[in-house]
Automatic annotation (TrEMBL):
UniProt KW keywords: Kinase, Transferase
Molecular-function annotations in GO: kinase activity
Gene3D superfamilies noted in UniProt: P-loop containing nucleotide triphosphate hydrolases
Species for this entry: Listeria monocytogenes
Entry annotated with the keyword Transferase: yes
InterPro entries per record: P-loop_NTPase
The protein's name: Type I pantothenate kinase
Length: 140
């Protein structure tokens, strides 16, 4: 493995063994409420895939906060809060919205009143090509 690689591949079996508190697991009712049409996501997926990922995101968040504080101290600037943005990308109808709703609920629980978690979706945000052409912004 390359020591400078920031990306890792984990087989599901190895990933699910990462140590995580099970306190943030969703209930079956909550999962049903946020599941999208035709999404195949189970409580087992939440436990084995999403929960370790939420833990990793929390680690990244705390590292980012630390680095931001160190930078502000070095620059002798008043420390300001900066947003921590998580972006999801993928093809049409692959479960991005459901994943985002799962992340939001789980991150709300993880940070439990210490941080505000918001979901900003781009569903329905893009204009059809015809509108872009009419407004002369197709090539922007």
């Amino acid at each position: 493995m390359n020591d400078y690689n920031h990306y890792f591949h984990f087989p599901r079996e190895e990933w699910r063994k990462l140590e995580v508190s099970k306190d943030q697991i969703l209930t079956a009712e909550e999962l049903e409420e946020i599941r999208g049409l035709n999404d195949r996501i189970s409580l087992q997926d939440i436990s084995e895939i999403y929960l370790p990922l939420i833990k990793l995101i929390a680690i990244q968040y705390h590292e980012a906060i630390f680095i931001h504080g160190e930078k502000m101290e070095y620059l002798k600037k008043k420390e300001s809060r900066a947003p921590f943005i998580i972006a999801l990308a993928g093809s049409v109808a692959v479960g991005k919205s459901t994943t985002a709703r799962v992340f939001k609920l789980m991150l709300d629980r993880w940070f439990s009143k210490t941080r505000q978690v918001e979901l900003v979706t781009t569903d329905g945000f893009l204009y059809p090509n015809k509108v872009l052409e009419e407004r002369g912004i197709m090539d922007k």
